Amino acid sequence: MPHILIIDDERSIRNTLKEILEFEKFTVDLAEDGPEGLKKLTEGAYDVALCDIKMPKMDGIEVLQKALEAEVETPIVMISGHGNVETAVEAIKLGAYDFIEKPLDLNRTLVTLRNALERSTLEAETKTLRKKINLIKGFEIIGASEPISEIKNMIQKVAPSEARVLITGANGTGKELVARQLHALSNRNKAPFVEVNCAAIPSELIESELFGHEKGAFTSAIKQRKGKFEQADGGTLFLDEIGDMSASAQAKVLRALQENKISRVGGEKEIKVNVRILAATNKDLRKEIENGNFREDLYHRLSVILLQVPALNDRKDDIPLLADHFMNLICQEQGIQPKTIADGAYEALKEINWTGNIRELRNVIERLIILGGVTITRADVEAYANPGNVFR
């Protein structure tokens, strides 16, 4: 149900609006003045807010300005008396969604609220489409070698299903690209793709990051916050570097996978979630299980499908394609004319031991673009590809 906030110093208007909107199946919160309304706007998650302009302590214009400064995304509809129409128009210029004159007309109010809700939905869909376009443009899997062709074929087969996938491989091999392709080709591709790097988040914060928290759950929890499970509802949740997840978080993730329910940190309410889980790791989870660092039951929940992403050393036939791709991409990003790569340079790149995989290759191509000539030669590769070289 849409969640509406009403900010008005007149009790009769607050209560009347509350009764009407609740009858129309809205969830309604009330604030009797500007400071209370601003506090609720910045701490809560509302779909639309109705805010009176003329109020004691803090008027509606100031509430609007401070809410926008705090990057509140809730559409705010101003409520104005007959003498405040010019002020209301000014509020729209500042960023209000619309204004309604007093005395309030029920039909006008409901139409305005529904229009504001539709705009919020359209903005969310636009963000999703932009992400999808960026996904198609920026996350293509480059290569035609046998190992990478097998991965592409598996992605085509697995993506339309709801199966959980565990993606393994060394650092820099492109595990995230595989996860994004699985989402892009799935039936969930219009919903969010939400990524969590389990290795980058401190163990004491990982549960709040995944499941969210209630206001006051811990010292810095100044407002309620949705976790990644809720943010990914209807879409895909990608748990990167899951081998680094804490034991307590593993237990909660297992429960979420078993029951499709989560509880926010500091909360008792169970929240239903509908997410597809993709996970990735550069660790051998079998060994981690033997060493007591990873739950075996969680491993089996995650590994319905196992995808091993090949190292660059195992797909060196793809190096010319990858080198050309990075050449064009980097030159476009930096606004310079693409250079050409001589056949000898391709061969020299194939002779390198790529311990850093695709990520290392990209760095080398960028270095060659900066330091090499108009045509990248074998001599350029031999001079500049070794990151240990010190340039004076």
Structure description:
- By secondary structure, the chain is of the alpha/beta class.
- The chain has 3 domains: 3-121, 3-Layer(aba) Sandwich (Rossmann fold); 139-310, P-loop containing nucleotide triphosphate hydrolases (Rossmann fold, 3-Layer(aba) Sandwich); 313-384, Helicase, Ruva Protein, domain 3 (Orthogonal Bundle), CATH 1.10.8.60.
- Helix content is 47%, strand content 15%.
- The chain contains 16 helices and 14 strands.
- It has helices spanning 11-23, 34-43, 60-69, 85-94, 106-138, 146-158, 175-184, 203-211, 228-231, 247-259, 285-290, 296-302, 319-334, 343-350, 357-371, 378-384; strands spanning 3-7, 27-31, 48-52, 76-80, 98-101, 165-168, 193-197, 236-240, 261-263, 270-272, 276-281, 305-308, 340-341, 375-376.
- A 5-stranded parallel sheet has the order 2-1-3-4-5, sandwiched between helices. A 5-stranded parallel sheet has the order 7-8-11-6-12.
- Strand 3 (48-52), helix 3 and strand 4 form a beta-alpha-beta unit.
- Helix 2 packs parallel to helix 3 (60-69).
- The radius of gyration is 27 Å and the shape is elongated.
- The mean pLDDT is 89.
